[in-house]
């Protein structure tokens, strides 16, 4: 079996198509994985847990040289990202999001306003009953 020559090099900026959407990405390494040589691809602006391994020789249809704009021009068409029609450019997450634990509705119910308490002040005449006891 002949050794495949990688089409992409380590550090090269590429377009990686995931689920039909093109993303700006970078080949961060070329390594052996499960006995096959693979590109390790990092999506620009995404956490490294989303990095993918693409086997050398099977990158056709998944990895492309150039920018997302060049890919769109070459491939044509408009894609939908998140249900909204875009120019075909996938937008990477740039803000850090944190997972919020689910709570029951009772735990986050609105607080009722505190009841107003009328301050009862007795007139001076009514306070005195003739004794000086407190």
TrEMBL record:
* Compositionally skewed regions (Basic residues) per UniProt: 102-121
Output the GO biological process annotations, alphabetical, semicolon-separated: chromatin organization; regulation of DNA-templated transcription
Q: Which N-terminal residues, if any, form the signal peptide?
A: none
Domain (MSL3 chromodomain-like) ranges = 8-54
- Gene Ontology cellular component annotations, sorted alphabetically: NuA4 histone acetyltransferase complex; nucleus
Gene3D superfamilies, from UniProt?
2.30.30.140
Q: Where is the composition biased (Low complexity)?
A: 92-101
Positions of region (Disordered): 92-134
Source domain of life: Eukaryota
Which InterPro entries does the UniProt record give? Answer: Chromo-like_dom_sf (IPR016197), MRG (IPR008676), MSL3_chromo-like (IPR053820)
Q: What is this protein called?
A: MSL3 chromodomain-like domain-containing protein
According to its UniProt entry, this protein's organism is Caenorhabditis nigoni
Q: Gene encoding it?
A: Cnig_chr_V.g21827
